[in-house]
Amino acid sequence: MPRVMLLVSANLTNIELLQTQDGTDDGNINYFFRLYCEGCGWKTKDRVVVSFNVREGQGRRDSSNLRLNVCQGCGRVGRITLIAGYGIPLTEHNGHEVRLMVFYCNGLLPTDYSFNGGWLAKTIHIDLSGNEEDSNREYMGIVDGMEVAIIDLEGKFVPFQV
C-alpha cells in the first residue's frame, strides 16, 4: 500500500500562519480531490471527499479508513486512509511546499487537490514597544488597511518516504 503526501505551497504576504482551522490534524477539515486508478488509468470526473469524521470499514489502531471507491474502468476496489501527525502549517518562511497530510492508498490514488473552506490565516502582529529612540522608524506588517495576500496557493500529491 503506497503512501502519498499532500504538499501545499503559497506566497504569503503579511501572513504569519496558514493552516486548517483547528491545526494540521484538524478533524473537521474535508479533503477534496479526484481519484486515479493505478491499474487502468481511469480518473473520476467529480471530486470525492475524505475527512477524519467519516469512517468506512475497519481501520488500524492509529488510522481511520475514510474512503472506499470502486474504479469505473476496471472494477478495482480502492481505499484511502488519512494518517495524522505529519502536517506542518504554512508560514512566510516555509511557504514553499510543506506537508499537509499523508494518505495510505490501496488501488486508487488521490490527484487534483482542491482547497475548500475551513482554513485559518493569522496575520503578522508587530511589537512597537522598545523603539522610543527611533520614533521615525517605519514598521512593515498589518497596520490598519495594509494588504494581506495569499498568492499561488497550490496542493499536489507526491510519493511519501518514511
Topology:
Elements: E1 3-13, E2 15-20, E3 31-37, E4 48-50, E5 64-70, E6 77-83, E7 98-106, E8 108-114, E9 119-123, E10 149-159
Antiparallel strand pairs: 1-7, 1-10, 2-9, 3-4, 3-8, 5-6, 6-7
Description:
0% of the residues lie in helices and 45% in strands. The chain has strands spanning 3-13, 15-20, 31-37, 48-50, 64-70, 77-83, 98-106, 108-114, 119-123, 149-159.
Anisotropy-based shape:
elongated
Strand order of the largest sheet: 5-6-7-1-10
**Fraction of residues in helix:** under 10%
Euclidean distance between termini CA atoms = 13 Å
Q: Which series of helices and strands comes N to C? A: EEEEEEEEEE
Main beta-sheet strand count, sense and barrel state: 5 strands, antiparallel
Q: Helix count?
A: 0
Sequence stretches where pLDDT stays below 50 over 5 or more residues: 59-63, 126-144
According to DSSP, the number of beta strands is 10
| Average pLDDT, all residues | 78
Broad structural category: mainly beta
Q: What is the gyration radius calculated from CA atoms?
A: 20 Å
Proportion in β-strands:
over 45%
